[in-house]
Amino acid sequence: DGGITQSPKYLFRKEGQNVTLSCEQNLNHDAMYWYRQDPGQGLRLIYYSQIVNDFQKGDIAEGYSVSREKKESFPLTVTSAQKNPTAFYLCASSIRVSYNEQFFGPGTRLTVL
Amino acid sequence: EDQVTQSPEALRLQEGESSSLNCSYTVSGLRGLFWYRQDPGKGPEFLFTLYSAGEEKEKERLKATLTKKESFLHITAPKPEDSATYLCAVQAGGSARQLTFGSGTQLTVLP
């Protein structure tokens, strides 16, 4: 059963802490993406990766970091430098970056206490 | 700069009352326009891709159409289970990696 999984579903963080959000896909897709969604706003791109060991900044990369050590995995770290981290985080993948359709995981809701 | 505007922000329909959602866009060379459905607290679910003006695609009660400036998502005889937020996104020819999303239309279908 192919798809994208994200964990945890809910995450609570104290100010000053780094947290890592997991994203795994078994679709054999080359490209993976991280988006942030805030209420009443469209999805905004944080980072994307075309292949293993390669990633590029999106529109709102400040305060975030990623790694792509395996094709299946693209974890996102929300660092203490991110001033307003409370949001709904969505991971997506596509066959390749130049391929249009992106498929999304179920999301992680991060709340800063 | 690529821009996507969706209207209305929210729409309430009675079951069986057909209507349309609008997605207006400004891009430098459209590579594709995408419609997604998003249920509360979940990730977006892919619905359609449209590539060129005049193209139409259908899925059950949904039909998406595309012109050079906008796309419509027509909902025919909706049911309560069609209630969701519908997102539109565009991909410009010069930016193969990035989708630009609209803020969505929240559709509620009342029984």
Describe this structure in words.
The complex is a heterodimer of chains A (113) and B (111). Helix content of chain A is 0%, strand content 45%. Chain A is mainly beta and 113 residues long. Chain A is globular and about 35 Å long. Helix content of chain B is 0%, strand content 59%. The mean pLDDT of chain B is 94. In chain B, the strands form two sheets. In chain B, strands 2, 4, 5, 9, 10 and 11 form a six-stranded mixed sheet that branches. With 111 residues, chain B is an all-beta fold. The interface between A and B is medium-sized, with 28 and 25 residues.
The shape of chain B, in one word, is: globular
Number of helical stretches of at least 4 residues of chain A:
0
| Main pleated-sheet profile of chain A | 7 strands, mixed
Shape of chain A: globular
Distance between the termini of chain B: 41 Å
Structural class of chain B: mainly beta
Q: Pick out the low-confidence regions of chain A.
A: none
| Number of distinct helices of chain B | 0
> Helical content of chain B, roughly?
under 10%
Number of strands of chain A: 11
Largest interface: A-B, 28 and 25 residues
Mean pLDDT of chain B: 94
> Sheet with the most strands of chain B?
6 strands, mixed
Secondary structure layout:
The complex is a heterodimer of chains A (113) and B (111).
Chain A: E1 4-7, E2 10-13, E3 19-25, E4 31-37, E5 44-49, E6 56-57, E7 64-66, E8 76-78, E9 87-94, E10 103-104, E11 108-112
Parallel strand pairs in A: 2-11
Antiparallel strand pairs in A: 1-3, 3-8, 4-5, 4-9, 5-6, 7-8, 9-10, 9-11
Chain B: E1 3-7, E2 10-14, E3 19-26, E4 30-38, E5 45-50, E6 56-59, E7 62-66, E8 70-75, E9 84-92, E10 100-101, E11 105-110
Parallel strand pairs in B: 2-11
Antiparallel strand pairs in B: 1-3, 3-8, 4-5, 4-9, 6-7, 7-8, 9-10, 9-11
